[in-house]
């Protein structure tokens, strides 16, 4: 997913825009009319409203694993590494280095990282940080169905691979991405705040040649989105990326409709210490799910 986003960003590195009409669905077309449209930054600048307001090529809302992976990909891709990027997340840890001690108990929140994701982490320079902390490769997998009478077994050797995946704590993945982005030359600003409002500002129909204007280069390339933050600051961006989780504020402000339902399930998560290394992942499907 992140690779696809980066390829599209690279292809349009000099033509970013925030669409004001339908994206691809009926729900999205309805959403476009729900985003407030205010006067252009050019008009606001004439009235003195844009003093000290920063402009960015990309604003990434959400500095978790997804958002930081995108930021690292932008930093490592030749056609996008020169972009000016804002990362917006209320987590104060983004402004400092997260320390993970070996004696800390394992985090119950983990992810199974596939070879494709490992390749992505290597490409952006984050995998070396993962290897410095706890991780568990597996080269076999056994899956039972709910009847318990049959199972399927997978082996990495069957597809000429060394491993099928790697289980890593989420905090280790996030730490690796954060360490990676802190050591890049990407033009970035991290806002430890939350987005409170988002509005689309249409670009001026006339081209501007005033070299003193901080917005002229941006508005000649399309519409801008203005983001208001909870700390009272605001910024403009040509592309807003909502990577702020299942209850995305960006999605809510954009008016995108979603369909969901509750799962009346509870789970017990625990870490079991083995006397020997285990390289097989086990999974059992019950009538209500895995």
Write a brief caption for the model.
The protein has about 290 residues and is of the alpha/beta class. About 25% of the residues lie in helices and about 25% in strands. Strand 1 (about 55-60), helix 4 and strand 2 (about 85-90) form a beta-alpha-beta unit.
Q: What is the fold named in CATH at topology level?
A: FAD/NAD(P)-binding domain
* Count of discrete domains: 1
Strand content: 15-25%
**Pairing-aware structural class of the strands and helices?**
alpha/beta
SSE succession: HHHEHEEHHEEEEHEEHEEHE
**Cα radius of gyration in angstroms:** 22 Å
Name the helicity range.
Answer: 10-25%
GO cellular component, one term: mitochondrion
InterPro entries: FAD-bd, FAD/NAD-bd_sf, UbiH/COQ6_monooxygenase
GO molecular function: FAD binding
Domain FAD-binding: 56-265
Keywords:
290 residues; alpha/beta; FAD/NAD(P)-binding domain; six-stranded mixed β-sheet; 9 helices; globular
């Amino acid at each position: 997913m992140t690779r696809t986003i980066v390829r599209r960003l690279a292809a349009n590195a000099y033509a970013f825009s925030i669409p004001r009409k339908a994206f691809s669905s009926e729900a999205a077309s309805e959403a476009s009319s729900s985003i407030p449209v205010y006067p252009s930054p050019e008009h606001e600048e004439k009235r003195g409203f844009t003093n000290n307001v920063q402009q960015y090529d990309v604003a990434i809302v959400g500095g978790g694993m997804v958002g930081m992976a995108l930021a690292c990909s932008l930093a490592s891709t030749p056609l996008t590494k020169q972009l000016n990027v804002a990362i917006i997340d209320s987590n104060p840890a983004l402004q400092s280095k997260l320390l993970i001690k070996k004696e800390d108990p394992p985090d119950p929140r983990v992810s199974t990282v596939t070879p494709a994701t490992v390749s992505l982490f290597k490409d952006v320079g984050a995998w070396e940080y993962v290897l410095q902390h706890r991780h568990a490769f597996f080269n076999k997998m056994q899956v039972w169905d709910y009847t318990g009478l049959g199972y399927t077994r997978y082996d990495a050797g069957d597809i000429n691979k060394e491993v099928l995946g790697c289980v890593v704590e989420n905090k280790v993945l996030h730490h690796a991405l954060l360490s990676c982005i802190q050591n890049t030359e990407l033009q970035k600003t991290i806002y430890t705040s939350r987005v409170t409002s988002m509005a689309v500002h249409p670009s001026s129909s006339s081209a501007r040649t005033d070299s003193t204007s901080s917005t002229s280069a941006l508005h000649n390339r399309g519409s801008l989105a203005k983001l208001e933050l909870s700390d009272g600051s605001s910024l403009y961006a040509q592309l807003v990326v909502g990577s702020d989780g299942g209850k995305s504020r960006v999605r809510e402000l954009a008016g995108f409709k979603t369909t969901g339902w509750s799962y009346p399930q509870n789970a017990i998560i625990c870490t079991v210490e083995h006397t020997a290394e285990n390289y097989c992942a086990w999974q059992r499907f019950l009538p209500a799910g895995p």
